[in-house]
Amino acid sequence: MKDINTMKATVLTAALPYIQKYYGKTVVIKYGGNAMIHPDLKKAVMSDIILLSLVGIHVVLIHGGGPEISGMLKKLDIESRFVNGLRYTDKETAEVVQMVLAGKTNKDLVGLIGQLGGKAVGLCGIDGCMIQAKKLEGDYGYVGDITKIDTTPIVNAIDSGYIPVVATVGTDCKGNIYNINADTAAAEIAGALHAENIITLTDIRGLMEDVNDEDSLIPVVHVDEVANLVEKGIISGGMIPKVQSCENAVRAGVKKAVMIDGRIEHSILVEMFSDEGIGTMFLP
Ligand SMILES: Nc1ncnc2c1ncn2[C@@H]1O[C@H](COP(=O)(O)OP(=O)(O)O)[C@@H](O)[C@H]1O
Ligand SMILES: CC(=O)N[C@@H](CCC(=O)OP(=O)(O)O)C(=O)O
Q1: What is the pLDDT of residues 26-55, one digit of tens each?
Q2: What Cα–Cα distance (Å) separates residue 221 from each residue in 129, 163, 194, 282?
Q3: Has residue 250 been placed in a domain?
Q4: Domain harbouring 248, CATH code
Q5: Distance 69 CA to ligand 1 centre (A)
Q6: Which residues make up the annotated site Transition state stabilizer (predicted)?
Q7: For 184-200, what is the mean pLDDT?
Q8: Burial letters for 104-139: b for 16+ Cβ neighbours within 10 Å, e otherwise?
């Protein structure tokens, strides 16, 4: 039987081809609020991200925080309402979204990375007018439709050795702020950065044929099938923007979009450093 140190060396050597494949490339990780609930898991995700960045992969972390926003709105006695998986956002709600996403969730993640010995910098779409948006058509209030991404703040952070951590609050650079679904923004940012991969961490195995049946995982989706899946009605709530975002990222040239289970420790490393297909992969 091999001793523990030999086993460690074997594992590290096995990761080498994958590290070489991704070295110097950009990988966008979208971390959903529902997979952020357990502190130990959150730590494991942040340490995976630090590891990826230390082996020379340019990780960009885009985070959600839907449950935290809902919690704060409830405390303030403001009603939460979702339309097609998007939170109806009046002016007051937009302020709470900015406060929670950019003020609390973002800084908690940046702080955790620092605590674990990594270097991160927190940004939101207002910083440097990075995520420019206008009102999304339809009755959603101040939900943003992205008009432009200026990747400069993200690229500068990476070039200076920081992991950029992005809260998806958008702006029209005229004083209005917009609530942007984190999956939607992550896909746009991945496209704008010409990212190699986008990995979406959520609280379910991936896209399911039947959300109540753990064994109904759909491992591969061709982007042309997405509209049909939405029409069939098997996708609801937050999964609608998530699936559409994976489709958009692939159409924007991102080589691989995957949705994986953020409840499993080190699922990011399994996804990146092995050929084991976990979750749902979206292909052109
Ligand atoms: N067909 C489906 N497959 C998987 N999840 C689905 C499906 N339809 C709806 N969902 C729901 O989407 C949820 C994930 O979206 P969301 O709650 O917005 O997560 P996140 O906070 O990670 O963005 C799942 O927990 C599940 O309840
Ligand atoms: C417009 C819209 O719905 N915005 C989202 C932004 C946060 C988010 O997307 O968080 P998750 O990734 O945890 O779902 C919201 O208000 O909940």
Answers
A1: 999 999 988 898 899 999 999 999 999 999
A2: 34, 30, 21, 5
A3: yes
A4: 3.40.1160.10
A5: 17
A6: 30, 242
A7: 97
A8: ebbebbbebbeeeebebbbbbbbbebbbbbeebeee
Instruction: Give the ligand whose atoms come closest to the C-alpha of residue 207.
Output: 1
Helix (H, G, I), strand (E, B) or coil at 217: strand
* Residue among 179, 184, 198, 202 whose CB has most ligand 2 atoms within 8 A, to mutate: 179
Q: Among 162-166, 224-228, 266-270, 274-278, whose mean pLDDT is lowest? A: 274-278
Q: How far apart are the first and last CA of the chain?
A: 44
Residue 279 lies in a domain: yes
Other residues' Cβ atoms within 10 Å of the Cβ of residue 250: 24
- Within a domain: residue 3? no
Which of 42, 181, 243 has most ligand 2 atoms within 8 Å of CB, for mutation?
181
Query: What token pair was written down for 50?
Result: 């630090």
125, 173 Cβ separation under 8 angstroms: no
Cβ of residue 232 lying under 6 Å from some atom of ligand 1: no
Domain span including residue 143: 24-283
pLDDT higher than 70, residue 1: no
pTM: 0.96
Pairing between strand 86-87 and 82-83?
Answer: antiparallel
Structure tokens at 169: 């609050």
Nearest to 166 by CA among 195, 190, 142: 190
- Of all protein residues, the one whose alpha carbon is nearest to atom 24 of ligand 1 is 204
Cα(155) to centroid(ligand 1), Å: 30
With a 6 A CB cut-off, is 97 part of the ligand 2 pocket?
A: yes
Q: Based on the structure, what is the number of domains in the chain?
A: 1
In a domain, 145, yes or no: yes
For residue 209, the CA-to-ligand 2 centroid distance in Å is 23
Ligand 2 centroid, distance to 225 Cα (angstroms): 24
